[in-house]
Amino acid sequence: MHIKEIELVNFKSFGRRAVIPLRNDFIAVTGPNGSGKSNVVDALLFALSLSSSRAMRAERLPDLIYRGDNGKNPDFAQVTVKFDNSERGVPVDEDVVEISRKVRLTKNKYQSIYYFNGNPCTQTEIHDHLSRAGITPEGYNVVMQGDVTRIIEMTPLERRRIVDEIAGVAEFDEKKKKALEE
Ligand code: ATP
Ligand code: MG
């Protein structure tokens, strides 16, 4: 399963709609400092609900909305991620799976809206769909800056937990523990 396309609308430094097509291959994003490379990764974390706003380098979610210098700022940001689902990594009968999230500012509040294949849904539903494909907040689908150093400095036991998590064994260990307690 791979990402075919990321669409950003008013997300962080992307002040208008930007569509990033991705091939099923090794991809590198290059550009000068501050040009928005990490913001593309933040967009993935945001759309797939894989991290807190702090990990996306924002104090709060509304900080993810584009702020220009002309004073007329948009009141929402949206990121849509299209996955190639031809191998049915997500168990729905569609060749493309589209996951989208919008953060919208209203008076003094803000809210997140989630979509699965264009239909509004809850964050839990997004998590459920993604975890079927092995994409989880605890997983290492996205390796962030500093993660590698952290992993190197772990004890062998802590490292083993990560391997268990990635291999999908941890989930069963947890279920087994619960079953034995019953
Ligand atoms: P580096 O090579 O230094 O890692 P980078 O290409 O990863 O740089 P990013 O961190 O993705 O750069 O982008 C940082 C830029 O995004 C900064 O210039 C910052 O002002 C801008 N930015 C962040 N949030 C917003 C926002 N809400 N509105 C407008 N610009 C924003
Ligand atoms: Mg960066």
Automatic annotation (TrEMBL):
It comes from the Archaea. ATP binds at P32, N33, G34, S35, G36, K37, S38, N39. It is found in: Cytoplasm. Transmembrane segments: none annotated. Contains large globular domains required for ATP hydrolysis at each terminus and a third globular domain forming a flexible hinge near the middle of the molecule. These domains are separated by coiled-coil structures. Required for chromosome condensation and partitioning. Homodimer. Belongs to the SMC family. This is Chromosome partition protein Smc. The chain holds residues 1 to 182 of 1171 of the full protein.
